[in-house]
Amino acid sequence: MIPLLFAVQVLLVFSFALMAYLTLTDRLPPNRYFGIRTKRTRSSPEVWRQVHRGFFPFALAIAFVALVGLVPMALTADSGPGLFIALWVADGLIVVLALVGTVVAQRGVGKA
């Protein structure tokens, strides 16, 4: 179970760090597979860019929280309740950051 959880957490770190990097370098074109895909972001390439730029700090925060969530797994071979509580807290925070970040980024379109 631990290797699977570790792999999922590494995938979270990688995915959100990649999204942040591609957004920062303006290399994340509108697509159907990766990024924030809502009706609003799919409405135009400019809206896509604005929303992802607004989400950038949240993507960095999510990558950091996911990385911090890896620490208990890396430091212990025990799969006790403490490890699972740490993962639930980290991943719960990731979900909250992703939802709040998406809403904040979409509300910021056109205000800059």
UniProtKB/TrEMBL annotation:
<protein>
    <submittedName>
        <fullName>SdpI family protein</fullName>
    </submittedName>
</protein>
<keyword id="KW-0472">Membrane</keyword>
<keyword id="KW-0812">Transmembrane</keyword>
<feature type="transmembrane region" description="Helical">
    <location>
        <begin position="55"/>
        <end position="77"/>
    </location>
</feature>
<feature type="transmembrane region" description="Helical">
    <location>
        <begin position="83"/>
        <end position="105"/>
    </location>
</feature>
<feature type="transmembrane region" description="Helical">
    <location>
        <begin position="6"/>
        <end position="24"/>
    </location>
</feature>
<keyword id="KW-1133">Transmembrane helix</keyword>
<dbReference type="InterPro" id="IPR025962">
    <property type="entry name" value="SdpI/YhfL"/>
</dbReference>
<dbReference type="Pfam" id="PF13630">
    <property type="entry name" value="SdpI"/>
</dbReference>
